[in-house]
Design brief:
alpha+beta; 7 helices; four-stranded antiparallel β-sheet
């Protein structure tokens, strides 16, 4: 495919065809273009608005093929977006402390302490236990750079990064980088980002359910992404004993299930 937009059109058409031909018990469809465009142009750009409009048309293509009397459809997202203009490169700080060695491009060659970044967050790892207190103090003292420190106890409560000694979550306007060369705070070509803790409502996403007798106009409030899979499993009659969250209480045909 030449673009994510073209890929999404094909995915929508293929999904409609598969549904009409086979009517599977479960179909999971991923439309990727909105995410791609928001990363490149920002949360509220004209390009993003056009991509959302296009995604709406792709969903329409799928819905027109589906029997909504007997089929439940959920339209879900995994995250929202905020605009960014700067990157936090903690590995530059660790290089200055002598905890990292890197080549001239900033690629890490060896490390005692390292930040492994993904979007708006970074997990901090330390091979040397004797350095951990110093690392944590350094991270605590430098939160003015544009992040919030997430200590081990909170990571444990979130079930995140079991081998990390800490993590950071970027504030709005910042993303996290992996390079060990250049400026600690640098410009970035990324215009929109996600991955930070969803304290900010901009990082929330949407949930829509329709069909199969679902009563219209229900407001579920703020839900967790972890509610979605148990709800699907319950409606399919599939046990999910390992689920961390309960299924959603959605009224269908006059009953909550």
């Amino acid at each position: 495919y030449k673009s994510e937009e073209e890929m999404d059109h094909w995915v929508a058409s293929a999904s409609a065809h598969i549904w009409k031909k086979n009517a599977p018990s479960l179909m999971v469809v991923h439309l990727a273009n909105v995410d791609h465009v928001e990363h490149g142009t920002g949360r509220d750009s004209d390009e993003t608005k056009a991509a959302v409009f296009d995604a709406n048309n792709n969903i329409k293509t799928i819905l027109q093929a589906v029997d909504l009397v007997n089929t439940c459809v959920m339209i879900v997202g995994d995250h929202g977006f905020y605009d960014v203009s700067k990157s936090i490169n903690l590995n530059v700080l660790f290089l200055e402390k002598g905890w990292i060695t890197a080549d001239e491009t900033g690629k890490i060659e060896s490390w005692k302490v390292v930040a492994h970044s993904s979007g708006g967050q970074a997990a901090i790892y330390s091979k040397d236990k004797s350095l951990r207190a110093e690392v944590l103090k350094l991270l605590e003292d430098n939160q003015v750079l544009g992040y919030r420190l997430i200590k081990k106890a909170q990571l444990n409560s979130l079930g995140s990064y079991p081998d990390a000694i800490a993590a950071i979550t970027a504030k709005e306007g910042f993303t996290c980088g992996n390079t060990a060369k250049g400026e600690i705070i640098a410009g970035t070509s990324v215009k929109g980002q996600h991955g930070a803790l969803p304290d900010d409502s901009k990082l929330h996403t949407g949930f829509i359910a329709v069909g199969c007798g679902i009563k219209g106009g229900q407001n579920l409030g703020v839900i967790s992404n972890l509610n979605v899979a148990p709800t699907i499993a319950k409606w399919l009659g599939v046990p999910m004993p390992s689920a961390e969250q309960r299924s959603l209480r959605i009224v269908r045909d006059g009953r909550k299930n």
